[in-house]
Description:
The protein has 436 residues and is an alpha/beta fold. It folds into 2 domains: 31-167 and 246-300, Vaccinia Virus protein VP39 (Rossmann fold), CATH 3.40.50; 316-435. It has helices at 15-28, 41-50, 72-78, 92-102, 121-124, 141-154, 168-183, 191-207, 214-227, 231-239, 248-256, 277-291, 351-360, 367-381, 390-401, 412-418, and strands spanning 63-66, 85-89, 109-113, 127-132, 155-166, 261-265, 294-300, 316-320, 322-324, 335-339, 345-348, 365-366, 405-409. It has a 7-stranded mixed sheet. A 3-stranded antiparallel sheet has the order 12-8-13. A 3-stranded antiparallel sheet has the order 9-10-11. α3 (72-78) links the parallel β1 and β2 (85-89). The chain is globular, with a radius of gyration of 24 Å. Mean pLDDT is 87; it is low at 1-12 and 412-436.
Amino acid sequence: MRSLPVSAESHDVDVRALNAKIGENYDTLLYDCYPDPELDPERVLGLAALYGCAADAGSDIDVLDLGCGTGTQIERVGALTGGKLVGVDISREACARARQRCAKYGDRARIVCADLLDLNPEDLGRFDLIYNIGVIFITPPAIRQSVLSLTAGCLKPGGVAALSYYAGGLGRLLAGLYRTLRAALDPSPDREAAIRKARERIGQIAAHLPSTGPVRKFMGEILNHVSSQSDTMLFHEGLNHAFDAMDTADLESMLCSRGVHFLNYLTPTPFGMLPAPRERALAADAFDFAVGSYRHVAFGKPIGTPQAANLRSPAVRWQSRLLRAQPQIAYGSPANFQDRATNRVVPVTRPQMQAALDELAAGPRSWASMCEAAQRRLAQSGSFNAGWGAEFEGDFATLWQTGVLTPLWAAPAAAAASGSPLPPVPPEQRWGAAAD
Length: 436
């Protein structure tokens, strides 16, 4: 079967015809993605709760996936919440696969096969959590605008949307390369011929790189990245339709009039404590101009005025990847902690922070329970027990923004269903066990 690449470069392109062709191409070459644990509800809602979103959501959160594909994300989320599940995609074959995957959830799961241009919030309902993964950066502007409008209209007050897109320098280089590859294709090649021609074109571009200098380094890495993609990824991401790099500040501008604001990236960032959404969005774009990547991004609909991150939010349980690197506990002197994920050693000076990390080694804790238990540890050791204000909170924010502390949603039912992404350390393996 022939599966034709399509292009959105022309301003007078028929967007509906283009979207229909995109759907047909996914019918003939299904794309099965793997669900990313970073997108699990307790992580997305936990981050959102810091900024005043998701705090009032019940344990049975309602979830919408715009561009659900074969349903891998909906299937995973369905096991983590008892709320309603709705997935939307334009590919008939992908929707059929998604229905099979989600049949075990019965009436609470619904898969809608439709062009996003034909839907409105009344068709779908209101949701606590909306996913839009792998869509807005590979669709023409009119479809992108429809997706963002649906996202804003379907999001409940206090809800959060997880979007994904390429940002910054990497995204711009990829967009330019993909345009060059699409321009070299015949108007109607079959899929295999299009992929073969694109790979030949990558080789031709690589042959023209200068022998030395920054252009060779940067473009060489981009060419290697694209040439190492599977045929399925290359076709759907680069050849099947438009590809754009996204600016977070532009998305914030598009959504803010609908009450939806940029919160933060799901991975730690150095700008997470900036007070206003616009400030964080501009900082994100500056950050990504240098180190741009594929981002998972949280946008939320706060109730009331958008707020800065509140590390003390009662809707958050904090999880730590740090364990003491030595068995001796002496809260009066500096101590080294080791990152369980990377083995990186993190020096910690303040005794209050050491005691808090010892407490978090037992498993996720709310801010209040962490501080209360840490105070007991300090009192039992005879250490000076003071300084739980701005300095401690500043240290805590620094550790969060370097990735060793993670905010998780505090809803008991959701937490019990999903478990902790990092299991608690057994008591016999915790250096701080004696202080319990």
